[in-house]
């Protein structure tokens, strides 16, 4: 049964974890490297991963002999490297000039549907119905799509200097988030 209260709680929780607004500098940086981000493909891939984890997340990780904490640690390392790229201006993720693959990795995973998002989805199952979680996921995907489609406009508003400052600032934030995810999962493995 659909519940507006549950859907709102799930939507706001996922919005905070996905943090698409905080990822704008990362996304603009990735767009500059790749030339273009396929908003539709990135959104669909992210949605597919989120729904997949909603339905079969825990059994899938168990089948691969991977626990949730190990999955979170691996995702935190990728996020850490992306943060380093932003701060140092060094390119670790080499662009293959293929916007199709670049829209999927590292944008769809791990930026949008990363380990934090996927483990949050699995955690939400303890308190909310799958249908309400699915609706919350779809609402967040609409927001993600709109942000991805608006990157050029956002980039114009901020300008080169504004983007540089924001990119460095959010690079540090991204590294801090990665360290937090790593610390909270690595030491408890």
From TrEMBL:
Keyword Lipoprotein carried by entry: no
Membrane topology: Multi-pass membrane protein
UniProt cross-references to InterPro entries, sorted A to Z: Multi_antbiot-R_MarC (IPR002771)
Official protein name in the record: UPF0056 membrane protein
Family: Belongs to the UPF0056 (MarC) family.
Membrane-crossing residue ranges in chain numbering: 6-30, 42-61, 73-93, 105-125, 131-148, 169-187
Signal peptide bounds: none
Primary location class: membrane
